[in-house]
Amino acid sequence: MGDSYQKEVFSAITNQLKRDFFLIKRRPLLWRFTLFLGILALLSLLGYLFFSTNGLTDSHGRPLDFGKIEKADMTRTSFVVSSDGQIIGRFFYETRDPLKYDEIPPLLIKGFIAAEDKRFFYHPGIDVVAISRAFITNAFYKIGYGQRSGASTITQQLARLLYAKELPEFRNQEQSYYRKIKEARVAIQLDRKYPKSKIMEEFLNRIYFGHGTNGISEACRYYFGKNIVRKDELTIPEIAILASLNKSSSIYSPIFNPPPKPLLNSDENKEEVERAEKDYQKKLAKEIARINFAKKRYNYVLQKMLKYGDITEKQYTASLFKEDEPFEQNILHITPLKNPQFGYGNRLVKEMLFMQGFTDNELAYYGGLRIETSIDASIQAIVSEELNKHLAIINKENIGQKEKIEGAVVVIENKTGRIVAMSGGHDFSETNFNRALSLRSPGSAFKPFTYAAAIEYHGKDFDSMVCNCPFTMPAKVSFNGTVTKWWTPRNFVEKNMVPYGNITLLTALTRSVNLATLNLAKEIGIKTVILTAHNMGVWGNQGVGRDSENQVWFKSPYADENSPGLQPYLPTAIGGSDVSLLELTNAFSVFARNGAYIKPSIIIQIKDSEEKILYSAEKYQEKRALSESTSRKMTVLLRAVTKIGTGRTALKTLKQPVAVKTGTSNGPNDLLIIGYTPEYSIGVRLGYDMPKTIEIPEYMQKVSGSRNLQVSGGWVAGPLFKNIVEEMYRKRPVVE
Per the database entry, which stretches of residues form a coiled coil (predicted)? Predict the structure, then answer.
């Protein structure tokens, strides 16, 4: 049966029906006889259709592939999962999490059958009774009489979903006999090849449910916050909503979307105000009408479920939607497909997957991967919330300005080196630039490496003396040896300056004295300082993470492996070389675990869609970076910072003991505090994206009592660090 011949036949039938409509309508017996002949003709046609695949070709003339379901060609979402099993991210072209038939709740299946195809388990892919009824009524509808009647079975709907790419006529909802015949033929072949359970499974996995969700599993998560794979039970009203969304995800959406109220200026004239209000009321009434229309559809599904014995009268009555009352929004628990607070961690996960050889297509199209990570959802929520609150406070003085102070926070579990939280800015949906990985000056937060080197390699101790003495040295020398620029470093200006002269290492580090630190670095050699930093995993290469043995453990797509890294010049001892917050925070965890280095990690395990393990992270390996003695001494020094040093004001009321070092770069352009508890290492950095002096006199007045006091890491980053630790340990016992 050729396509052109079929079209000619359909056209002839339509014209004949139009001529004979009034004759048939006035004679009931003739109407019944016509219906009988229609059924007879249809049954004759089915005999041919059932056994033949002739003419079932795609738009290029190739035979349709009826083994398509077996090839699992549907797009699949790859899921990023937190350490406690929560879905915290998705990589997808179409968000979908295919389920097996046995994973789908039986009552949900009954709901779809009641709404769409009551004889699903008994017909051969098409419903002869429904088609016979629709064949006549739709023919008359086409010539302007009566109402349209549907007859598509679930199998026919699946045929459209499966072969929309191959058959252009399946891409729209145009009601033509030509399309319906082809749709029926495909459905019959699918029914012959696959069991009903497979057809239902494939159908529910392919439906578009609106708001970017494809498949029943993702729809349950999005609308109701339920994971049916983990046996979260759906309510009967929820089933009615889901079964209705298949008919039209926009018309029958349960989400009430009122139009935004008009924002009117006081100087607008009365006519404009009335026009805007009238337009608002019109749009609001339209949305109210839509939601009431949706409720009628939900109730229709409930009526069908009651009629077919799927629910009891009592359940039906309790589940009915009240059309004249506001929609019961408590039914919904909208769970966005993307949660910005996990965005930066997910971005790092994706880049590490690229490092392992995965491609974008594997992640977003057909991978269906389950990527288990070390992200702790509760700690991440604390970090994101506290960072955003603090940025809002310090940016009050920047209202109206394009540039805002931004920030980053990293939290690492000391025992394993696993990243449990990462925030690279206030809003990932606004910018995916990850400030936790960008290179910036660490300021005085780098100084602990200088003191660790002095203790480790030169036998220095708390009471060892170092000169807090000014000096000048060449900064730039011409090709003939002439000094063209001199460098005269200075100490940070504060109320109670440390006097010049010899001071102890304890005083030098806790008070963050620049001149003493530089003189110490001159004494032990800057190369020793850099060696110590390297051993602790700090290299300062753009977009590259290196471990204590110079092995790359992370490389972003925009990495520059040839970037200079830590510079072998004296200013590096006090933060003159740029490093990332991630590598700096991980280096402090070396002190916390008594001198053992562990490279950071975030991916624990990767499984494919069939639960086959593709990757499992190796057990963390410790490498000696410092002696236990040096590490313990550094912890004593860094804890003293919170009692008598630069962190005392911000952290004096903190119950959980911490060891920290504050950092303030030149300008100051960057404000930091890096520290650790026995369990976690935490790094905080604040600053403009384009280096710029931070000036927040009103904030400084509030926290210090002086508008003129110089901005520092202790005053500005310290309170954020304190709030994060307090929230993390609010329900945890204090750990010494």
Answer: 263-290
